[in-house]
């Protein structure tokens, strides 16, 4: 990825209540740099509902609508409609939710908004569990992971839900994945999403040192290894699901290097990690095959 200049404007200040090394906090800072001051946020129950600070204090210099766990997308839809009724077509509305409020509790309202193609950006900061309420399993939690509801004696056996394909099935104008280890790529995608009218979905990998039993200083390294180990491909889907671009310009790294640094996978044997790596490679090949297939169809 080509280096770029980081915008100097800061819309997120000091005084937030995040844990050390919080990927979700890094992600918010980058997103706001990309969007600028003409932005309104919708934040449901999630870590960021706490990180922001207790009313009347806030670490973000923007309007924020805090809402119920399951309603980020529908509130964003209503907020955008209300702004347009007042003649404001300039303000960008961004829903900002965790994986629990996106993959699980908020999926119904997100699907409804996407089916209507309501005009807002939806960002899921994906830390792969319900972190704010005690590190419980979500459908974003990967195979093999410890959580408080999937202890080491019964760790998660089911695969992570494929939210990207679910959102692509809605034929919305823009979908992307990102990682906090690649901030310029994320900011580019946020800015690009803002050029489309309709529902835009971006899923950013945001490590949680507390929930992952990870040293805080390794947060960015884990976000990078997730990509280079192919656990978390970086991609864009445009043309209402008809065009897929996958980032492949990196030096691959072993799955074990990513997994063994995290306490949530410490119970896994080398054989189990090898099995996970085999599955990841198979999914990667299927993703590349889909990219080639879409590129080969005339007229797409």
Topology:
Layout: H1 23-35, E1 39-43, H2 47-51, E2 64-66, H3 72-85, E3 92-98, H4 100-104, H5 107-116, E4 120-126, H6 163-168, E5 174-179, H7 183-193, E6 199-205, H8 209-212, H9 219-228, E7 235-238, E8 243-246, H10 255-259, H11 270-296
Parallel strand pairs: 1-2, 1-3, 3-4, 4-6, 5-6
Antiparallel strand pairs: 5-7, 7-8
Could you describe the 3D structure shown?
This protein has 300 residues and is of the alpha/beta class. It has one domain: 3-Layer(aba) Sandwich (Rossmann fold), CATH 3.40.50. It is 37% helix and 14% strand. It has helices spanning 23-35, 47-51, 72-85, 100-104, 107-116, 163-168, 183-193, 209-212, 219-228, 255-259, 270-296, and strands at residues 39-43, 64-66, 92-98, 120-126, 174-179, 199-205, 235-238, 243-246. It has an eight-stranded mixed beta sheet with strand order 2-1-3-4-6-5-7-8, with helices on both faces. Strand 5 (174-179), helix 7 (183-193) and strand 6 (199-205) form a beta-alpha-beta unit. The longest helix has 27 residues, at 270-296. It is globular. It starts with 22 loop residues before the first helix and ends with a helix. The mean pLDDT is 96.
């Amino acid at each position: 990825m080509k280096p770029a200049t980081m915008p100097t404007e800061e819309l997120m200040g000091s005084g937030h209540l995040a844990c050390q090394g919080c990927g979700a906090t890094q992600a918010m800072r980058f997103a706001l740099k990309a969007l600028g001051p003409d932005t309104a946020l919708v934040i449901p129950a999630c870590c960021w509902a706490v990180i922001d600070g207790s009313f009347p204090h806030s670490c973000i210099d923007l309007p924020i609508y805090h809402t119920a766990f399951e309603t980020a997308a529908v509130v964003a839809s209503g907020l955008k409609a209300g702004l347009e009724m007042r003649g404001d077509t300039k303000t960008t509305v961004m829903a900002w939710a965790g994986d629990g409020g996106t993959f699980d509790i908020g999926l119904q309202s997100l699907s409804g908004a996407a089916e209507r193609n309501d005009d807002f950006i939806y960002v899921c900061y994906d830390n792969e569990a319900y972190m704010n309420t005690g590190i419980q399993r979500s459908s974003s939690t990967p195979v093999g992971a410890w959580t408080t509801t999937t202890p080491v004696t019964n760790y998660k056996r089911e695969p992570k839900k494929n939210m990207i394909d679910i959102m692509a099935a809605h034929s919305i104008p823009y979908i992307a994945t990102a990682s906090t280890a690649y901030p310029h790529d994320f900011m580019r995608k946020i800015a690009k999403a803002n050029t489309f009218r309709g529902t835009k979905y971006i899923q950013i990998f945001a490590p949680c040192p507390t929930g992952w039993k990870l040293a805080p200083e390794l947060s960015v390294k884990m976000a990078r290894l997730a990509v280079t180990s192919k656990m978390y491909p970086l991609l864009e889907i445009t043309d209402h699901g008809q065009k897929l671009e996958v980032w492949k310009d990196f030096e691959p790294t072993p799955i074990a290097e990513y997994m063994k640094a995290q306490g949530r996978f410490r119970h896994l044997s080398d054989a189990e990690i090898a099995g996970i790596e085999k599955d990841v490679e198979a999914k990667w090949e299927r993703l590349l095959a889909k990219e080639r297939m879409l590129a080969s169809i005339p007229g797409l």
